[in-house]
Amino acid sequence: MRGERGPTLAVAYLRVSGKAQAGQDRDGFPRQRDAIARFAARHRLQLTREYRDEGVSGTRDLQNRPALAALLADVAASGVSVVIVERADRLARDLMVGEVILRELAKHGARVLTADGQDLSAGDGDPTRKLIRQVLAAVAEFEKSVLVAKLRAARDRQRQKFGRCEGVRPFGTAPGEAAILERMRELRRKPRKGERLSFERIAARLNAEGLPTRKGGPWAKRTVASILAREQVR
Questions:
Q1: Are residues 123 and 207 in the same domain?
Q2: N or C, where is the chain less crowded by C-beta within 10 Å?
Q3: Distance from C-alpha of 185 to C-alpha of 36, rounded to nearest angstrom
Q4: Residues with Cβ < 8 Å from 176, sequence gap 6 or more?
């Protein structure tokens, strides 16, 4: 398991169900730590960190395991590719919970190995694990489809309300802009006598009245013309 650029980096995950087990040899941390260390040395894996969940049931999911949650976050950031547990039941006693955890770790390219020689990330020979992974994949695809549908519906609502949703939103749609846009229209309307104001004069009036552009700068002839041209199209 040695790569061309040095030993493969690995982390250890230890778990005991009861606090009283933490220092015991039967199911405690010392025994798990020793088994993991021997496995890592045998396969030339470099242990960089240890994560321990104490007094945590193996049927709990990822959100209820602080050390496992920290492990996942660190794996995503550090690029560690191997997680070692003493036995499969140290990762999870519930098969579904275990598969969910394995799936989360796999997203970040991490494999889970046991000190007794199992590759829990493979599991191709176990029909039950294979079925669960297929179900999880189907659920993930369904959730993605639901999210896409929700985003599409949100875009449609934006188009119906504002006429568009992609790109920069037109002037007048952001908070505080509607009143400025209405003032711009008012200045552009042709009076009964005389000529309507030019875009340049409208820009000057807006600046004199202290009405800001979206970016807070002064109004320019071209900006006013562009906004009012869009209004005519609508």
A1: no
A2: C
A3: 74
A4: none
Q: Which domain holds residue 65?
A: 8-130
113 vs 97: CA distance, rounded Å: 17
Q: How many CA atoms lie within 13 A of 3 on its CB side?
A: 11
The model's pTM: 0.54
Tokens 């104001």 belong to residue: 197
Q: CA quadruple 84, 88, 93, 95: dihedral positive or negative? A: positive
Flag whether 151 is in a domain. Answer: no
Tokens 């995950």, residue located = 13
Q: Does the pLDDT value for residue 90 go beyond 70?
A: yes
Supply 23's token pair: 């220092």
Residue 94 has which token pair?
């519930």
The answer on 200 and 119 residing in a single domain is no
Strands (E), 87-169: 111-114
pLDDT tens per residue, range 14-51: 998 865 444 555 558 999 999 999 999 999 999 999 99
CA atoms within 13 A on the CB side of 225: 7
pLDDT, tens only, 181-227: 999 998 988 887 778 899 999 999 999 999 989 888 899 999 999 88
* Angstrom distance (rounded) from CA 114 to CA 89: 10
Helix (H, G, I), strand (E, B) or coil at 45: strand
Query: Which residues, at least 6 apart from 123, have a Cβ–Cβ distance to it below 8 Å?
Result: 102, 129, 130, 133
Measured distance CA(98)–CA(101) in Å, rounded: 5
